[in-house]
């Protein structure tokens, strides 16, 4: 508004300045003519000032006065005009500021009066409602009175828990009742009840989402359990789980040649049965490689019972372990031969017998545990390697189309989490 006012006043000020300049130019032209006459007659004259007061007589030679007139007149005129315009504008601005301040003070006063009236009305309404709720006129509102009063005013039934929550929200004294200074009015109670309702709906929605998610997880676990047979082994599973250990037994018979081939061995039914199995095993070309690949392939089938798959994998590792004693004995034989030494026969016999007895002990432990339906996972080093190879439910996922996919490894998940954290920090 001030800028618009100044823009409107500007043409008027320009016309006024132009009129004043014309008047002063006329006066200076007259003075110049008088000064010329006085100069010709070589007399003293008077000096003329831009100010509109009476001229003063000076004894200064007129030639110097003439120079003073023509030199200083424009400067004095301009300064006077600027002072005149600035003073008028400043007075108008001060007047406008004073008027605006007065209007602002008036508006603040009116707003304060309205707030005071509104507060008084709210206090009167709260006191009136308090008296209506306080049915026994004891000066305070109990939970029962609050419940009855709100149900009457809001025309809806409220649960005891909801009313108790409302009482806890506004009972600042903690005495289990509302006094007049704690009674905030029906509107505040209504707003708080609506807030409680929204919060309950939010919690119910989150609970429903959580239940749905848990249901999806349970369904996925059931689907995984149907694919990965980790159920309790049946009697047939227990019997079948013994068969894989024939593979390391056949390959380990070479270490039992001193024990199995001896006096009375032909009459021992166990030795006879083992000899028959060994003959059949060796009659098949590349029987060792075939047994290895069959056990390895079937051990990765999730539909086979876990106990059977575990024994298949452990039988492979036991058979691999039998390779190292033979390798070690061969190295020692070569080293002894190179050194010109001969290993006593009794040492070779005892070492091979010890290896075979150890093999029988391991296979016996595995057989007894399998018959009892317990995983034989107490063999040092070997059982730990088998556990690492056994598939579990956490190792794979099922997509929306029912296809089995490999689950992300923990290392990959950790890298993904670190990547997400870095991206959040950059943002």
In words, what does this structure look like?
The protein has 427 residues and is an all-alpha fold. Helices cover 71% and strands 2% of the residues. The protein has a two-stranded antiparallel sheet with strand order 1-2. α1 runs antiparallel to α2 and α7 packs parallel to α11. The longest helix has 72 residues. About 7% of the residues have low confidence.
List the helices and strands and how they pair.
Blueprint: H1 2-40, E1 46-47, E2 56-57, H2 62-133, H3 143-154, H4 160-170, H5 186-227, H6 235-240, H7 246-252, H8 257-260, H9 269-283, H10 287-299, H11 306-321, H12 323-338, H13 345-371, H14 382-389, E3 396-398, E4 404-406, H15 410-426
Antiparallel strand pairs: 1-2, 3-4
Helix pairs in contact: 1-2, 7-11, 10-11, 11-14
Radius of gyration: 56 Å
The sequence of SSEs as H and E is HEEHHHHHHHHHHHHHEEH
How far apart are the termini?
45 Å
Strand order of the largest sheet: 1-2
Overall pLDDT confidence: 76
- Poorly predicted ranges (pLDDT <50, ≥5 residues)? 50-78
How many strand elements? 4
What is the SS-derived class? mainly alpha
Report on the biggest sheet.
2 strands, antiparallel
Shape: elongated
Strand residue content:
under 5%
Number of helices: 15
Helix content: over 70%
């Amino acid at each position: 508004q001030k800028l618009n006012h100044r823009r409107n006043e500007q043409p008027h000020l320009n016309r006024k300045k132009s009129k004043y300049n014309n008047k002063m130019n006329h006066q200076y032209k007259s003075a110049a003519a008088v000064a010329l006459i006085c100069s010709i007659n070589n007399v003293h004259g008077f000096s003329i000032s831009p100010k509109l007061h009476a001229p003063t007589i000076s004894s200064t030679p007129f030639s110097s006065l003439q120079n003073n007139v023509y030199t200083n007149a424009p400067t004095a005129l301009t300064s006077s005009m600027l002072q005149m315009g600035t003073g008028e504008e400043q007075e108008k601005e001060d007047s406008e500021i004073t008027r605006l301040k007065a209007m602002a003070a008036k508006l603040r006063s009116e707003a304060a009066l309205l707030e005071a009236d509104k507060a008084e009305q709210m206090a009167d309404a709260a006191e009136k409602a308090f008296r209506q709720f306080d049915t026994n006129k004891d000066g305070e509102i109990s939970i029962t009175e609050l419940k009855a009063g709100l149900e009457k005013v809001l025309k809806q039934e409220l649960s005891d828990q909801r009313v108790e929550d409302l009482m806890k929200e506004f009972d600042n004294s903690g005495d289990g009742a509302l006094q007049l200074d704690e009674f905030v009015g029906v509107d505040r109670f209504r707003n708080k009840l609506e807030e409680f309702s929204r919060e309950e709906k939010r919690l119910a929605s989150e609970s429903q989402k959580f239940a749905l998610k848990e249901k999806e997880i349970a369904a996925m676990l059931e689907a995984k359990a149907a694919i990965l047979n980790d159920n309790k082994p049946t009697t047939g599973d227990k019997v079948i789980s013994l068969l894989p250990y024939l593979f390391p037994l056949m390959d380990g018979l070479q270490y039992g040649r001193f024990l199995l081939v001896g006096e009375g061995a032909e009459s021992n039914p166990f030795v006879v049965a083992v000899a028959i199995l060994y003959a059949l095993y060796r009659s098949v070309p590349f029987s060792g490689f075939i047994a290895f690949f069959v056990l390895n392939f079937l051990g990765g089938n999730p539909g086979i019972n876990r106990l059977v798959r575990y024994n298949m994998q452990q039988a492979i590792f036991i058979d691999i372990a039998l390779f190292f004693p033979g390798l070690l004995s061969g190295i020692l034989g070569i080293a002894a031969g190179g050194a010109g030494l001969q290993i006593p026969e009794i040492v070779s016999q005892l070492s091979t017998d010890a290896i075979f007895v150890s093999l029988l002990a391991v296979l016996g432990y595995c057989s007894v545990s399998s018959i009892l339906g317990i995983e034989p996972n107490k063999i040092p080093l070997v059982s730990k390697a088998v556990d690492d190879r056994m598939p579990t439910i956490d190792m794979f996922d099922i997509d929306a189309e029912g296809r089995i996919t490999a689950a992300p490894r923990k290392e990959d998940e950790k890298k993904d989490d670190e990547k997400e954290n870095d991206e959040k920090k950059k943002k």
